[in-house]
Structure prediction request, 372 residues.
Amino acid sequence: MRYKDCLLFVSKCLTLDQHPERIEEIRETISQHKIDWEDVVRLSSGQFVLPAFYLQMKRNGLILYLPTDLTDYLSEMTELNHKRNLAILDQAKEITLILNAHNITPVFLKGTAHLLDGLYNNIAERMLGDIDFLVREDKMVEAAEILIREGYKPLTKYKPEMFRKLKHYPRLQNFNRPASVEIHKEVLNPSYQKLLRGIDVLNDKTQIETWDEEAFIPSIQHLVIHNVFNAQLNDKAQVYGNILLRQMYDLFQLSLSADVLAVAQNHKKKFNTFNSYFAAISYVFSSPDGIYYQDTLSVRFYKTRLKLSLSYPFFSIIYKTIIFLSWRISRYISIPIISIFRKNARKLLMDRITDPKWYRNHIKSYRAFFKH
Prediction:
């Protein structure tokens, strides 16, 4: 089964709750034996939407048309994710209690925020990696030190000279808890922080109604903005033309409660970033309700590049490799030059080139890119 066909099939299945008229089409596609279920599982797992796919199929009466062993596997994976998400919510509540005791109020981000906000019909639907939360800039290090005293350990050593360049404290892990933790002072990478400042998110937060503790999530407008910028800019989907199905699915769910195009129109300087993302989601999810975009020349170019990447994987590999290597080479040149003029940059550079662990991690980043 071609990757493109598999992607469009899985994505269409993710819209069934909102588009029940597609149920018969999906049933017909399955009955004609056009689906390679190994490819579906591989893609859904790799894109972190396997439980969402299973639950959409189950809620819409299509699970009967899947092979029995596949149904059993999907059911088991979804139940495991359900249990893990319950444990993550308990962990988030515990973190809130700990930080509230020190007058620090976390604002949970991304997947954790979506679980707390009830974005999905079933909490098992969303797969989570880390627990991300935002605190005031001057509280980031203090919050990390508090959690470290509570049994969390930094997976990378924190260096004070890194403060300006970081959007979050190095990842913390308590091996008796299900998820690692990232404590943010900003939500975007340094190059883009002017587009959405952490303080703006904090000032427009929404309290979690189901908890007695003082914990918050971003406003729905900021959830939309963060989703778009995190995918398009932080994760470089706009540059590489990557399909980040989990984040796209989040945005699709958010569009049921917010006019996402209106949110985009309030960001005129980066409107093309929003517009291209919405166009990609509309294409991948087969023009679902709630996802609208303006058909501009730049969007047509973006969609053409996206379709070429999906239809001709070799083209995509060459294009992404050129972009990746060009960016890496530019960094090898620019960082030593910047370090001549900036003391902090110079110290960071020396720390890197004298740290064997940095070389290992750097090589791993190349392996991860080419493996993906």
